[in-house]
Design brief:
By secondary structure, the chain is mainly beta. The chain contains nine helices and 57 strands. Helix content is 6%, strand content 49%.
Length: 968
Amino acid sequence: MLTLPLSVWSQGKTITGSVVDADDGSPLMGATIMVEGSKDGTVTDMDGNFKMNVNGPSRKLSVSYLGYDTQEVSITNGTLVIKLHSTQRNLNEVVVVGYGTTRRSDLTGSVSTVQSKDFNKGLVSSPEQLINGKVAGVQIMSNSGSATAGSTIRIRGGASLNASNDPLIVLDGIPLEQGGISGNGSNFLSLINPNDIESMTVLKDASSTAIYGSRASNGVIIITTKKGAKGKLRVNFSTTNSLQTRTRMIDMMSRDEFVNTINTQGTAAQRALLGNDNTDWNNQVYRTAFGTDNNLSLSGTAGFLPFRVSTGFYSQDGLVRKDNAKRWTGNVVLNPSFFQDHLKLTLNVKGTYNKNSFYNGSAIWAAATFNPTLPVYADNTTYGGYNEALDASGVPVNGGVCNPRGLVDQYDSRSTVKRLIGSFDVDYKLHFFPDVKLHATVGTDIARGEGTVYVPTTAASNFSTLGLDYGYGPQKNTNQLMTLYANYSHYFEPARSNVEVTAGYDYQYWKSTTPMYVTRNANGDDLSTVKASDYRHVLKSYYGRLNYSFDSRYLLTATLRRDGTSRFSGDNRWGTFPSVALGWTMTQEKWLKDSKVLSNLKLRASYGVTGQQDGIGNYNYLPVYTQSVAGAEAMMNGEYILTYRPEAYVSNLKWETTKSWDFGLDFGFLGNRITGSLDYYTRKTEDLLATVPSAAGTNFAKSILTNVGNVDSHGLEASLNVTPIQTKDWQWNLSYNITWEQMKVKNLSLVKGSQTTNVLVGPSIDSYQFQVLSEGYEPYMFYLYHQLYDPATGKPIEGAYADLNGDGVINSEDRYRYKSPAPDVMMGLSTSLRWRSLTLSTSLRANIGNYVYNGMAMNTGAWETVSYNAYQLNNLNRSYLATGFQTRQHLSDYYVENASFVKMDNLSLSYDFGRLNRWIADLTVSALVQNVFTITNYDGVDPEVPNGMDSSFYPRPRTYSLSIGLQF
């Protein structure tokens, strides 16, 4: 469709206009405008605008854009508004990249974008959950089922060992600091309202991430929030209300199995501890949980001012009693433009008020192990009226398991967190030189967190301390940013070349402070002192990028960034991070351009270097002395004085660097109704920041963080998007991705060529560590003994392990590396089927080849665990029925299980009623189920657990939701 003013064409005129999407009016950057019958032409700028001189007899323009129907347009005087109709499906042409945007056809790196319409549906507490299972090479795992739990995000498996493996998160141009804050240490990203997000772009290879330099080794996720749009006022309201229920629980003995086991195998004293009740302790700790998420937004134009204002309230109870997260959010975006769009301003302010109530973490263990034959309450009220195990003197038995209901009821831990993220962007396209655009951003991210803990004196859990009653914080975090860059873009007609150059400077400052606080008991007596902290660091950066394309066929991208950080000494402070990438759009060649079947085919190759300096502390290169706190003074000359303790440090710490190759193929068929990509990548991390043993007498700690060795990884990724059916009444969309990856530790030696011992890492149970870092192997493999089995019964033989080194002795030399928590293959599948106004959609994920150590089966599945004292019985894991172990076999590989799984993350059915009346423009009602099912052979609660260690894991709930969306 073409909108033209009535005018008469004349030769030698300057033609101006814009090219936009016919469906939504969005500008099409990089559209090609050619004068028919000549070689004259141009491309649209970032705002979809163009300006060109036309000479000669030609009276028509040919306007083309990848994924849109080519259109012939008559030339007239005045401004042209050219509306192109898309021929593509599931392909977003304008892609947000570091410090700007580009069209997808010009991409030379591995970049994936998920738009809001493709986000995961349901009650979503944190932004990363929106894209779980949607992007090849990206693994997102919620750390538990708690309402306050965060997520672990890995892009291509991560690139480090001890330094951070978390990707860089960039929110509306502001790189966010990793970590959390007091009162929200594990789920800081949840303070961003998912309903305000327009798109999330994942940068995976070095070509796309190197522009972020020292923070990009683990990939980058760019979050773009919704903004105001020109037009009349639009009001949107949505509400989602849900109920959460338990799914799979720890496999403990039933009440009858437990009683029978004690009666047949227990002593007389143990049998005497059996009661007559039948208590399901899970019912005392867990509950059906309610959640609600409500959002209201207003957008439009007030005079010359496009705006969007939104507010939201979210509240989610956890399955465990006392577990709750509440969030109030507000967002204001003003984005006016002046001087015919030469000057654009954007003010974006997001505010969050978060209140959390935390559960007692000991209650999950207690609910699994507490004696099921005892009642919940006792006859006396000494310990809050709860039935507790008491010794002969009438006090809680030392080291006993406390009453599960008492643990949740008598524990009160709350926090309050406030966060403000604000940015002001200025874009100015020079009037006298419109090929140049200047950009400036100033931004800030301010957070404050504090909390309280209260346990009454009557609580058996804190009997020895007479309860707890103290506050902590406020911790104050500040993140300040200034970004300045210039962009030059020009199409050189004679050379058929498009050149874009970006150069810029960043300054970012972080500060985190926490005051000293004292932990006290419920009577107000001091118990301990927690020292104050003050951490600060600065990052300065210079960067540049060149994008070059010839005839829309041959593409080149080169970037260079130089970072300087205060986390390293002056000698190692600056690092340089380059990248280069090439692309060949084969479907722009004459021999493929007119193909009726193949609509897109592009080859990509890239190489780059990125860095890492997160997760290592701010002062590890400095000799730091820590002052002792009250209660830890030294006696000198008859008086107590504070002392100073030297901390371990390495003066020559430097950048951890990752060198990456990526080879990719993008394809599209049948007008891009079938699209996809294939990628093969390799990564090598050098000067690895790792914690390794230090030589005796060389430092102030047994282990030090230093640059040592390297880690290699490689993998394959594939994604496929298909629209098999597209008619007026029916539409079926399918999206599938698969990832295969491997990682290997190549060197952990402080001295090149020397032999290193295995470094034990990971979670521990009773001081046993189960995972190891070893040269030549995957990181974090399980390091255990090989269990021997009775050939007649097939049962494991207690204490019998294979002598793997053949020396006739079973000792630590016989431990071996067995399996890994990391999956070999990850898959994701999303599909939606629409019939008229009714849509059915679902998302599934699968991990293959991941293993889990079943710590609960080991730690509660031996006879010794039934009674740690003479006053109490503990329930047993049903694994005891299969093993008959008398003592716990901590390091037996018997407990390492294949945890491969298929999960249906969500299933939704929605109906769009459309316009109901003059006030309600649209009504949509949806019913959703999340965590629908899990198919796995793993015997524990969930095959997807942090670090591959299952120990008192908080079960993920199944969620049933009803959602209503209204547009006015």
